Amino acid sequence: MIRPGRMIKQVLQSLFKKPATSLYPFVKTAMPDKFRGRLKYYPERCIGCMLCMKDCPSDAIVIKKIGDKKYQAEINLARCIYCAQCVDSCPKDALEATKEFELAKFSRENLKVVCNEETCRSSETKT
Ligand code: SF4
Ligand code: SF4
To answer: Which value, to the nearest 10 degrees, does the dihedral of the CA atoms of residues 51, 112, 82, 28 take?
Structure first.
């Protein structure tokens, strides 16, 4: 059992120490290299091979042909488990795992992202 005198000393010492915890979300945390966060799609690089779709364990990504050699990715961020298998499978580096991790939305519908050459946006109306 800690004696009161020792306990008070520890409390006073703690008052002047830098906290072990971070002040997130007030202080942003830097994600490490190779962090697997939100996917980024580069439509201009995509050849529509569908390897990303085939290898995705969560059925979270759909590639659709929208024109002559033009494709779009539909990514369901609610289904995605951020394994980055699609990034590894893509032969054209058309997918990238970013460091973005703050993805919470009020509705699952808002976690469906449509990305093509014209637009790369969430289905949510951005404010
Ligand atoms: S990161 Fe994993 S779960 Fe998400 S779309 Fe790519 S393969 Fe599917
Ligand atoms: S694996 Fe890459 S090139 Fe192939 S469809 Fe997916 S994003 Fe496009």
So the answer is: 140
